TrEMBL record:
Source species of the chain: Apilactobacillus apisilvae
UniProtKB keywords: Coiled coil, Membrane, Transmembrane, Transmembrane helix
Transmembrane segments: 32-50
InterPro entries hit by this protein: DivIC, FtsL/DivIC
Name of a matching Pfam family: DivIC
Lineage, uppermost ranks: Bacteria, Bacillati, Bacillota, Bacilli, Lactobacillales
Domain of life: Bacteria
Protein name (Swiss-Prot/TrEMBL): Septum formation initiator family protein
Residues in coiled coil: 63-90
């Protein structure tokens, strides 16, 4: 079917085509602006999400390290409490003093072996 519509080349047609071109140009410009705004918002939200994830993983690793330190400290605390309880025992205290300072009971003799390294009492 042949195209039977002929466009007139008058002022009205030129103004209408000009307005139509301006509207299309303005819509394209708005579209580019909206897409740009959405991209900026998405980039900002992505940055925030990644930053939050990194902070969360850092806090998790710090928490794990702190828990290990707490566990070690608790074990050491238990050992120290046990040592304090043992210091109230005369037998343990006597044994400790005899080992550390080479104290003897009356009539006992202490023999030093070549591998023994005795510490002087004044070095504590």
């Amino acid at each position: 079917m042949p195209n039977k519509v002929h466009h007139l080349n008058n002022n009205y047609e030129k103004i209408t085509n000009s307005r139509h071109a301006k509207i299309i140009k303005m819509r394209k410009k708005r579209g580019v602006i909206l897409v740009s705004i959405f991209l900026v918002v998405i980039l900002i939200l992505s940055y925030q999400l990644i930053n939050t994830k990194m902070q969360s993983s850092n806090l998790a690793s710090k928490k794990a390290r702190s828990e290990v330190i707490l566990k070690n400290s608790s074990e050491k605390n238990k050992e120290l409490k046990q040592n304090v309880k043992q210091l109230y025992s005369n037998d343990y205290l006597e044994k400790l003093i005899r080992q550390k300072y080479y104290y003897t009971k009356p009539g006992e003799t202490v023999y030093g072996l070549p591998g023994d390294v005795s510490r002087d009492v004044t070095q504590n």
